[in-house]
Amino acid sequence: MDLRPKGDFWDERVERMGRDELAALQLERLKWQVRRCHEGSAFYRERLDAAGVGPDGIRTLDDLRRIPPVTKQELRAEQEAHPPFGRYAMAPPGAWGELHPSTGTTGMPVSTIWSWRDIEHIADFTARTMWSFGVRPADIVQNAFSYGLWVAGMSVHYATQKIGCFVIPIGAAMTDRQIFYMKTIGSTVLLSTPSYGLYIGEKLREAGLGPDDLPLRIGSFGGEAGAQNPATRARLESALGIDAYDYFGLGEIGPTFASESAAKSGLIWAEDHHIIEVLDPETRRPVPEGKIGILVITHLTREATPMLRYWTNDFALVDSRPSPCGRTHLRSPGGILGRHDDLVIYKGAKFYPVQVEEVVRSFPDLSNEFRVELHPDLATGRDLCVVVAEAASGAPSAQLLEQLRARLRDALLVTPEVKILPQGSFERTTFKAKRFVDLRGAPNN
Q: How many structural domains are present in the chain?
């Protein structure tokens, strides 16, 4: 528990640091990280030498661009070739604290190690994020992020201890028990994926409970995009009677290291621990500020398994202007805008499931659930895109179907096929919902 008085900031000196001072701090830490990676990791030494970057090759922050980005596929291949942790595990085993593999659904998980010092840093900047969206020592925090090998549950748990909260470490399970604790113990803060938060809201309605029946006041939602989507945020806030905030983390980089503050002005990055870049997906060169590209993240303080220019595959933009709350670190209005893997190309148009989400959840007659499917059209040899939604109650009308089709056409600049299933057709999830399904290679198609 950290007993320092903080006011509106967990660490005001760091959170309101000027951009020049922050850049100087980043450069000092980047030099340290590149030097130790060159000296202590055969994996990085090979990459750095091939790029012409020696142990003292970083003189300015722009020199970081000389280092090629590293992908999840490369990390997976490294760990397969040099099991179990690859040659980029840096801290000695005696300093290792925890193991956390990635949550990817394809291929071998990529294992990430936290040293004891890494755990201290993670707990501190997670506490910083939680403090920024209003969590205080008197709160009762219901932690519905998964525990165990998935990273977010553990990081939030450590952070609540630093803040001094009473925590209910329930994890992403037992929805009826979630509601029981909200009612009987009086949870004031909920953390979960957006999909699970919406499902809890559905179960509350089924139980005849409304927002006024619970003391919840804050919800923060990560693990998937959506909390900054206006329609999704509105549904979460209405169903749970909360202010809803976006949260972001990655297994390979760290959990819960960027969140919205109470100003709801976008994800605010912990730039004293990470360098945030946005690159063009084709040229891999930086895009202008305010333009959308792929997030690339570098560890500045990670000891055990540092990442130099990790290619996240997530689309976002950054804004260097201070947030209205006074925080000066880079922020990403809109949050994660899509994943490169989930890009749908249909009849020449390009779109992401998050754009479909905004449309579907703007209809009160539709439930929270939807899916974007790509099928082979055997008659034409072309792809067929189908948006599958679910009625909020009863049977969907033909008028609702046409309205949804028209709204999708306006938003996506292409008209997908549309299906609306009866209420309850979609299986609900306590974890991450799969919103894009590519069935073009499925058997019997």
A: 2
Give the CA distances from residue 72 to residues 76, 277, 394, in Å, rounded to whole numbers and listed in that order. 6, 17, 44
Task: Look at residues 313, 339, 365 and tell me which one is the last residue of a structural domain.
Answer: 339
317 and 425 both lie in a single domain: no
The pTM assigned to this predicted structure is: 0.89
- C-alpha angle with apex 291: 290 to 296, nearest 5 degrees? 100
Confirm if 296 and 69 have CB atoms less than 8 A apart.
Answer: yes
- Residues 130-178 pLDDT 10s: 999 999 999 999 999 988 777 789 999 999 999 999 999 999 889 999 9
- Rounded to whole angstroms, the Cα distance separating 377 from 192 reads 38
C-alpha distances in Å from residue 317, one per residue of 225, 229, 278, 296, 345: 14, 15, 7, 11, 21
Closest CA to 98 of 298, 255, 307: 255
- Token output for 382: 């072309």
Which pLDDT score, from 0 to 100, does residue 5 have?
46
User: What distance in Å separates the CA atoms of residue 222 and residue 336, rounded to the nearest whole number?
Assistant: 10
pLDDT at res. 107 = 60
Token pair, residue 21, equals 């001072």
Alpha carbon distance 22, 33 (integer Å): 16
**Residue where a domain stops, chosen among 270, 305, 339:** 339
Residues 197 and 312 in one domain: yes
Mean pLDDT confidence for 84-89: 95
